[in-house]
Amino acid sequence: MMEIGADGYIKNIKKIPIAFCFDDNLEMPAGVCITSLLVNAEPDTFYDIFILHADKSTFQHGKLKELPARYGNCQITFRSVGRAFENAFEIRGITYAAYYRLLIPELITEYDKIIYSDVDVIFRNDLTRIYEETDLADFYMAGVVSVSANTEEAYTKSLIKMGLNPANYIYSGNLIFNSKQLREDGIVPKFIEEASHSTYKRQDMDIINIVCKGRIKRMPPVFCVSVAVSKYATFQLENPCYTMQELAEALQHGIIHYNGHKPWKQYCPYFDMWWEYYRKFVFFDQRYYFEFFSQKMHEYDLLPLWERVKILARWFMYR
Fold it and tell me: Which helix (H) or strand (E) holds 296?
C-alpha cells in the first residue's frame, strides 16, 4: 500500500488486519483498546480493523466510528454475524459473542492471515513485526501458552482428561489466524459443530484448542500478558512455559490482557495504564473518571491498615 506523504514523497504503508468481536456491553472498553492500538502505531502502519457483531447490536452506530477520523491510521469495517451462536453455552459472565472469533476465516475473506484480539486489552507497541514475522505454514493458529493450564493442578488434569497437552494449550484472547488454511480445510464448520453442543468451561478457548490440536504455533508471551503471566514472571525463578528473556520482554512491551478483574470496574494489575488510554478516547467522560477513583479511594480508606498494605504490596509486585 503506497501513500503520498506530507513532504510529497511516496511512502510504503504496512497494512495490518485485525479483528475484534464483542457486544454492546463492551463498547466503551473496546474503544479504549482500539485507541491504544492506534496511539502506538508506527507512522507507516495502517490498521484494517474488522468488528464482528450481532444483528441486534447498536454500537456500530456510535462513537467507535469516530476513531478513523481522530487518528487517520485505520479504517473500521463493521460486519454482522447475524444471530450466530445465540443459543451457545455461556459461563462466568462471558456471553456468546466470545464465539464470533470462530467465524473470522469465513466472514473476513479479504486476508489469508489476520490478528484477533479481545477488547479487555491494552496495546503498548506496533503489531507489524509480530504480524509479518509469524510464519503460519503448517499451522492453523498462533497463540500464547496458558500459564494456568500448566501451573494449576485441577486445570491441568481437566485438559489431560480432554485429550489435550497443557504445554500446548493457548489463550484465545490474542490469536493469529491462518485463515487461508482454515478455509481450505473446512475448519470453521468444525468450530460451529463443537460450539453447538458444547458445555466447555472455557468456551471458545477449549474449542480452538480441541479442533486445532497439533496445528497450533506457540507465540512468545509478549503477544498476551495475562494476569497469570505477569504474576508468573514476578515470582518464578525457573519457568517451563517461557524463558526469562521472553518474560522480561513481555513485562516491558507486551500486550496487556485483563482476563481477570476489569480495570474499568475495580483495581487490578496495570489498571492505571488502562485509565491513561481512557483519557485519550473519544468517549472520555470526566465525571465518570472522577467518580471511579473517588469511589475506589473511599473503599480503600475503609479497609483495615493491614489490608491496605497488602494491596499496595501486590500493586508494586505486579506493576
Answer: helix 286-301
